[in-house]
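ping. complex inputs:
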Amino acid sequence: QSVLTQPPSVSAAPGQKVTISCSGSSSNIGFTYVSWYQQVPGTAPKLLIYDDTKRPSGIPDRFSGSKSGTSATLVITGLQTGDEADYYCGAWDISLSAGQVFGGGTKLTVL
Amino acid sequence: EVQLVQPGAEVKKPGESLKISCKGSGYAFTNFWVAWVRQMPGKGLEWMGIIYPADSDTRYSPSFQGQVTISADKSINTAYLQLSSLKASDTAVYYCARHVDPEALSSRFDYWGQGTLVTVSS
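pong. complex structure:
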């Protein structure tokens, strides 16, 4: 059971928009910034979004992040077949068992 | 170019030990925390712990405390993850990653190694 909650899967057609939610609590998302990672099967995760909304150099603006309270959202517009991957949210948790926590991951299928 | 290089795969028998390496290059290795992240087959990401190579300050996830040992040799820009008394359930991919701002508001992993697939089987 992951500390952060994501939907197991989402799907959409090429060119469409998809949103992936990430729900946490006041000791993680509600207190610290959220980051998002893309993992294409068989490869290492890649940082997509950090500090809730910022994109590292080289990440297209089709990927965007937002946060409200204890929930965060990743939005991908103009879907491409290459976006098919697993997406994970992450945040630092300040509770007694402090540490980095992740969502369980969301598998994006581009139909 | 920032790189974290790990061995691709290791095969071990139950009860054996293993030390996985992660060699950093392209940046000031001692100035950034290095994290270890486990991914069991078909499952999500689990943070195991971190080390600051400059002084080997180490933090462990409560889930992995006492089960693994994280170390570093700053003279060769390399971090290590040691797994002991391996069991079949330790079969997983283990990633190292550069962990920016752990224990702070902006915690994130900006560069990742390619992962080491550890298979434990008799």
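Strands of chain A lie at 9-12, 18-23, 34-39, 46-49, 63-68, 71-76, 85-93, 99-102, 106-110.
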